[in-house]
Design goal:
CATH topology: 2,3-Dihydroxybiphenyl 1,2-Dioxygenase, domain 1
Order of helices and strands: EHEEEEHEEE
Strand order of the largest sheet: 1-4-3-2
Helix content: 10-25%
Structural class: mainly beta
Radius of gyration: 14 Å
CATH class: Alpha Beta
Strand content: 35-45%
Number of helices: 2
Low-confidence stretches: none
CATH architecture: Roll
Number of domains: 1
Distance between the termini: 27 Å
Number of strands: 8
Mean pLDDT: 93
Largest sheet: 4 strands, mixed
């Protein structure tokens, strides 16, 4: 097993609002598809070999600040996407926090849909 995770899905009550939120904070377009009655906006990983995920809306998808926490890649410095969270309709919960020199930094936020999400970066 190369990665502990191979796919993740972030629930959205308002699909367009959620897609815009992640497009705004990450600065990358998201491909939209509908599969088996579920609207999905894919996070751009650059290739099919990377761990990927999507914002999903449909039956069985209910946003929550409880449960599994996903750590999104904060890039070279997570201050960049983190600075966009509140302008995009989210709420900062924990600012950029040093974990250790080896592991880097993390930060927590609530997205536009009420999901508890985290960022990670080495710087």
């Amino acid at each position: 097993m190369v990665n502990a995770i191979n796919w993740f899905e972030i629930p959205a009550a308002d699909f367009n609002r959620s897609k815009k939120f992640y497009t705004d904070i990450l600065g990358a377009e998201m491909e939209v598809v509908e599969m088996m009655g579920i609207k999905m906006a894919f996070f751009n990983t650059g290739d099919r070999q990377s761990v990927g995920g999507a914002v999903c809306s449909g039956e069985g998808y209910s946003p929550s600040d409880k449960g599994v926490k996903v750590y999104l890649n904060g890039g070279d410095d997570l201050n960049v996407p983190l600075s966009k969270v509140e302008k995009a309709g989210g709420k900062l919960i924990m600012p950029k926090t040093h974990i250790s020199d080896d592991i880097g930094y993390m930060a927590f936020f609530i997205d536009s849909e009420g999901n508890f999400i985290a960022f990670h970066s080495q710087n």
